[in-house]
Amino acid sequence: MSEAKRPRLAVWKFASCDGCQLSLLDCEDELLALAGAIEIANFPEASSAISDGPYDLSLVEGSITTPHDAERIQMVREQSKFLVTIGACATAGGIQALRNFADVNEFISVVYASPHYIKTLETSTAIADHIPVDYELHGCPINKMQLVEVISAFIAGRKPAIASHSVCVECKQRGTVCVMVQGTPCLGPVTHAGCGAICPAYRRGCYGCYGPMEDPNTAALAREWQQLGKTPRDVQHAFRTYNAGAEAFLKEGQAHGN
Amino acid sequence: MTEAAKSVISIDGLQALIDALAAKNYQIMGPTVHDGAIIYDAITKTADLPAGWTDRQDGGRYRLERRDDDALFGYVVGPHSWKQFLHPAKETLWKASRGADGIVVTAEEPSPQKFAFIGVRSCELAAIAVQDKVFLEGPYLDVPYAERRKDNFIVAVNCGEAGGTCFCVSMQTGPKADAGYDVALTELHHNGAHEFLVEVGSEAGAALMQEVPHRQASDEQISAAEAAVANATNQMGRTLDTNGLKELLQGNANHPQWDAVAERCLSCGNCTMVCPTCFCTTVDDHSDLSGDNAERVRKWDSCFTLDFSYIHGGSVRTATRSRYRQWMTHKLASWYDQFGTSGCVGCGRCITWCPVGIDITEEAAAIRAAPMTDKEKPNERP
After folding, report:
1. Which CATH number fits domain A3-156: 3.30.2130.10, 3.90.1010.10, 2.60.120.260, 3.40.50.700?
2. In this structure, are strands A8-13 and A55-61 parallel, antiparallel, or unpaired?
3. Do residues B185 and B156 lie in contact, with contact meaning Cβ atoms separated by under 8 Å?
4. Residue B302 forms contact with A (CB below 8 Å)
5. Rounded to the nearest 10 degrees, how much is the dihedral formed by the CA atoms of A198, A202, A203, A206?
6. pLDDT, tens digit, for every residue of B216-270?
7. To probe the interface with A, which of B75, B266, B280, B307 has the most A CB atoms within 10 Å?
8. What tens digit of pLDDT does each residue of B9-19 get?
9. Confidence check: pLDDT of B42 > 70
10. N or C: which end of chain B has fewer CB within 10 A?
């Protein structure tokens, strides 16, 4: 592919831990091919050489938690032809969306010595709540091979081969024995596939890092969790982690009080 | 086979049988304990088998427990089935690359290994026969399946006990193996001896038994084996009334029970993954970053996913009720229209491995208990 035709990539950070954008640098075996296929035009985490937009592909990490970021994301959208949000923060508000259930001013007063310097929003929200998003890649963190798939698909002009069914399908494809049927509560049946069903392979229940699957029946799963001895509070805590702000998990969390 | 063809082997004889298969370069798969369950994996010796273990199964529940004897086959079926070897969860169909000579497409070469399966239950033989119909009969031969199915050596085991979710008697698939095996074993604990009654089911089985030390079965041993199978027959954990079932299900497409089951169903797809006859796959096409290499991968799919019924414009079966109904009526009814047989073999896996314990026998019974009247039925299907 000639130099002139390479699509220009930008990577943007909002409220997040950086883990998802670092998966791009973690693509050790694919990094050379990646650099050959796209021009990394704006990726401050990787290089201080930053070229101006517009960009063909933007990867957006993080959630919107400040008035400044709520404005900045508009600027990102304007400069991006195709915009992909990556990770639970960007797609669902992240773990920091737990603030949505509490009084953020109370947190600020406890955490910061000079709270008046802090300008923050009362909520942490997904990027798609602020701008139109072309594709969402789920996960906390995202799976780097899925990221390579999304970029490869973008370059080829095809749909990414990324399934939105339950983790259970991945679990069964790798031959893992179901932990839930053996008595360990698991969020796998309502959680979006993508991680490769890691936790059940190590005999742990799924923590729901990839957020809700395409058509989650969270109420039925919550009933089964209680059959397995979990309290409503346990159920609420399970749904309120990295994807607490994702609609299906949000609703199920709200249905189980303290 | 005549009664005279029945012989008896010891545990050492079973080891000799495994060794004889290994000498013929079979890859030997059998039951073994892993992660608190009996799964199917490579085995080389009788010590790999789950000696002294049994399984307790119910809807959405599975536990291994110690037996008070050292039986090698004292359990029923677990989460795995032989499908994972004959029809693997994921396989690359072909790869393509673009180079100086243009685009070159290479089909994946089938592995030259041939499988021997140890401990195949009669319901599983029925399931293999169902998948044979799907993949090997009709106008389209599934070449990778045919390659893996070729020259299999099957050591069946007749069940001496039934599990909590078993209903092979209802589906007329067990508990005694009657076809589709090379040799069939019935485990005997008789007069203080731990042995196996052997019935030969094929020429390959007869040839193999020439290499295995055995003696002729006594009438007593034959009776003990029959008693063991009768014991399993009388212990079925579930029953399914199949009388007119196809017409019943196909005539109740709008029954309120579909809504009731959808309220519990997670649409997670576990039932279809563990089902030994479910054969559906999807195909993913991948291209790499350079755009010079592509591959087509076939993976197990499930009729419980939205993508499964996705056609131009959207998914056809958006509601869980329609997806559950599709699965169950296909399995128990329209499978007859398509393949001339039931798609259900009564192994009970879909009941045990449903995280919320939905029971196909209970769902069928609920519709049978209160079928819709002609008056209640709408004129058209949804």
Report:
1. 3.40.50.700
2. parallel
3. yes
4. yes
5. -20
6. 999 999 999 999 999 999 999 999 999 999 999 999 999 999 999 999 999 999 9
7. B266
8. 999 999 999 99
9. yes
10. C
